[in-house]
């Protein structure tokens, strides 16, 4: 629950976060990257809010005047359209021996950069408060599996981070891959 006055809320909504908050968000992303790269997926789930929306829409190549149509809308085709429960199911499957596309497991390296943090504007996002943070970042994920399978995924993420207790949790993540056709044999990598 926010303790800010309405005047403070109006002045903070949609504004850039302070330096300490920005640093905290960057450290959160570095921890998340390390968990994913170390294959500690159950621990990674702990960084996700229970009402998580994890979405990676597909893209198409469009003329400049049609760019608004280049990203698939909600309900359209997506590489990922997940909840925390469905991600947990995927992770349990990795450990079951039934996920042949991850046995032996991939090696990944997640690089996160260009982090921009601002307070959510509740007028634009009514399900959130000014205490929540809207974060845009760029990523590069290198994936290697077996002897010759290599993939590089580049793109951006737009997250809403929620403070829970003394930490942050990802409540919404929209992943926009720069590729519209993936060259990977499968997509079992989390972003």
Quick structural gist:
The chain is of the alpha+beta class and 191 residues long. The chain has four helices and six strands.
Describe the structure.
With 191 residues, the chain is of the alpha+beta class. The chain has a single domain, classed as Roll (Nuclear Transport Factor 2, Chain: A). Helix content is 23%, strand content 36%. It is built from four helices and six strands. It has a six-stranded mixed sheet. Strand 5 and strand 6 form a beta hairpin.
Question: Secondary-structure blueprint of this entry?
Answer:
Elements: H1 6-12, H2 19-37, H3 41-45, E1 48-57, E2 78-82, H4 84-96, E3 107-119, E4 133-145, E5 149-164, E6 167-177
Structural key phrases:
globular, six-stranded mixed β-sheet, 191 residues, Nuclear Transport Factor 2, Chain: A, alpha+beta
